Automatic annotation (TrEMBL):
Transmembrane segments: 43-62, 74-96
InterPro entries, A to Z: Hypoxia_induced_domain (IPR007667), RCF1 (IPR050355)
Keywords: Membrane, Transmembrane, Transmembrane helix
Predominant cellular place of this UniProt entry's protein: mitochondrion
GO BP terms in the entry: mitochondrial respirasome assembly
Domain of life, source organism: Eukaryota
Name the record gives this protein: HIG1 domain-containing protein
HIG1 domain: residues covered: 15-102
Signal peptide from the UniProt entry: none
Protein source organism: Pyrocoelia pectoralis
């Protein structure tokens, strides 16, 4: 005697596929993604922190009535933003070449 296993109706196959995929892959949390991205391109977070620090200190100096220091910090902020963008573009280029090699 041969026992036939019934397959799910075609309209419900996506549910089985979804269950199979959820068992195979663990979802990546935001913290895990941030760690992975930082390992891939460590200069972007450094540039972001430098930008935020220069902006914060520049605004604080402006509020304290120190326009010369505030102006210096705003120029440093622009330089840090430029560094961040350049690091981002270089990281994209490197990751694109790594994908092309694989």
């Amino acid at each position: 005697m041969v026992v036939e296993i019934e397959s799910p109706p075609p309209e419900l196959e996506w549910i089985k596929l979804s269950d199979d995929l959820s068992k195979m892959a663990k979802p990546e949390t935001m913290l895990d993604k941030m760690k992975r991205k930082t390992k891939e391109n460590p200069f972007v977070p450094i540039g972001c922190v430098a930008t935020a620090a220069a902006l914060s200190y520049g605004l604080w100096a402006f509020r304290q009535g120190r326009p010369k220091m505030s102006q210096r910090m705003m120029r440093l902020r622009v330089a840090a933003q430029g560094f961040t963008i350049i690091a981002f573009v270089i990281g994209l280029g490197l990751s694109a070449t790594n994908v092309a090699k694989s």
